[in-house]
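About this split. The held-out portion is used to measure sequence recovery: a designer receives only the structure tokens and must propose an amino acid at every position. Recovery is the fraction of positions where the proposal matches the reference. Here is one held-out target exactly as it appears in the evaluation file.
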């Protein structure tokens, strides 16, 4: 009799993904499951080719290709799905990945429109719904076949949780389509528009389906960093409950009242989303009043908020898919800070009330030197009966102490292309390196004191 010791994973498996392959064609990350110890695997692939979002027609063709590919896989993947193997396939700004269903945009909720227009105004490249619809006549079989040849002529791929599988995918692409690698300059992702300091902008659109209004008010803070990430998240932690209590419960502005962090293309800021029967201008005013009422917390309350945020950030994933999603987010952002939670929490514990207050005064208070504001107003094409009277009555009930002081009227955006072309772009963040992060080094030094 021979005794054989079976181990589900190496005794000292790395706690974060490791890069096991990096060449002009692909970058492969592998993470051995040493937590859930189940016979499961999560594989994520992103196939990158800038042609997929080169113009509205290419964007539509990429979407059509994905839909047809998914349809062709339905019968083939049926047996695998019965066995518990599932997949998803989406097209993105840069290509497509495994992990869009067409929707009637006009019928979406007003707050969804507000979020969409915020993204459109801040993205370096973005095609409007009107531009996409305008190119639909050119979506033909001939153009789709030509597009597919372009799409697979050059490719770059990033993968997570794949070992031998990756070799098969790359080999198949090269053998069947003669795919060549992209140039490094073709793999650069889009950047975020940098809003000007000390200026507020407003963009207004109509919704022809719903009778309610919505706004998204966004205060842009700048590039992500360990320090700013934690200061912004801590500020949101403190504002979250008072925001709902003030704007939703007391002022009854609407059923949808949200505040939180917005992050895209390595840039972040504080955002408020409201949907209401009131006029957008009134909603924006109430948000401004709330933002300026930064309560003076006691040291005990301040530490409770820090503790609550620490607990939330260090909450362990309950499923393998959740853990994989965290790592995959770092890969899609090309930051690769797989130990982000632990690193940022260590810095969070060193933050003082004075630091947070200075951060608030620097970015959000009226007259702040780095205040950058963009607000999206979505209003119904035809105001519901009584809406104007409700707004006037609400404004009349607002006391003088709750009214905002005289602040500059926001500059109205009438041409999206002209607005974006006259503003600079935020730079790309390089991949995260702990020894080059001054905030991480500082937190380590404070922790030892």
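Reference sequence for scoring:
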């Amino acid at each position: 009799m021979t005794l054989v010791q079976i181990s589900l994973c190496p005794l000292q498996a790395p706690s974060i993904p490791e890069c096991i392959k990096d060449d002009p064609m692909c970058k492969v990350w592998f993470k051995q499951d040493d937590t859930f110890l189940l016979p499961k695997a999560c594989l994520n692939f992103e196939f990158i080719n800038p042609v997929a979002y080169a113009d509205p027609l290419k964007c539509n063709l990429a979407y059509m290709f994905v839909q047809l590919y998914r349809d062709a896989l339905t019968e083939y993947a049926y047996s695998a799905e019965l066995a518990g193997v599932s997949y998803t396939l989406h097209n993105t700004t840069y290509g497509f990945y495994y992990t869009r269903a067409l929707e009637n945009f006009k019928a979406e909720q007003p707050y969804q429109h507000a979020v969409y227009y915020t993204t459109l105004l801040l993205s370096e490249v973005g095609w409007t719904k009107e531009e996409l619809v305008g190119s639909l006549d050119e979506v033909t079989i001939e153009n789709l076949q030509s597009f597919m040849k372009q799409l697979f002529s050059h490719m770059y791929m990033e993968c997570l949780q794949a070992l031998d599988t990756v070799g098969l995918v790359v080999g198949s692409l090269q053998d069947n389509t003669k795919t060549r690698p992209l140039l490094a300059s073709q793999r650069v992702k889009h950047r975020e528009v940098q809003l000007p300091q000390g200026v507020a902008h407003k963009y207004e659109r109509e919704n022809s389906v719903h009778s309610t209004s919505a706004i998204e008010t966004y205060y842009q803070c700048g590039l992500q960093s360990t320090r700013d990430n934690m200061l912004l998240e801590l500020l949101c932690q403190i504002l979250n409950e008072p925001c709902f209590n003030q704007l939703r419960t007391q002022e009854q502005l609407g059923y949808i009242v949200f505040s939180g962090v917005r992050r895209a293309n390595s840039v972040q800021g504080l955002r408020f989303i409201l949907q209401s029967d009131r006029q957008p201008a009134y909603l924006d005013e109430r948000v401004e009043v709330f933002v300026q009422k930064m309560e003076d917390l006691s040291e005990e309350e301040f530490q409770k908020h820090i503790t609550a945020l620490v607990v939330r950030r260090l909450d362990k994933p309950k499923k393998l898919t959740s853990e994989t999603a965290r790592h995959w987010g770092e890969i899609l952002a090309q930051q690769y800070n797989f130990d982000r939670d632990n690193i940022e929490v260590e810095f969070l514990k060193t933050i003082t009330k004075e630091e947070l207050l200075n951060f608030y005064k620097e970015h959000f208070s009226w007259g702040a030197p780095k205040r950058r504001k963009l607000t999206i107003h979505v209003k119904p094409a035809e105001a519901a009966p009584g809406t104007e009277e409700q707004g006037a009555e609400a404004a009349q009930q607002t006391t003088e102490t709750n009214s905002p002081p005289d602040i500059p009227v926001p500059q109205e955006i009438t041409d999206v292309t002209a607005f974006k072309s006259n503003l600079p772009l935020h730079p790309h963040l390089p991949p995260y390196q702990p020894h080059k992060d001054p905030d991480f080094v500082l937190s380590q030094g404070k922790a030892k004191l």
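Annotator remark: Residues 1-7, 98-103, 397-401 have pLDDT under 50 and may be disordered.
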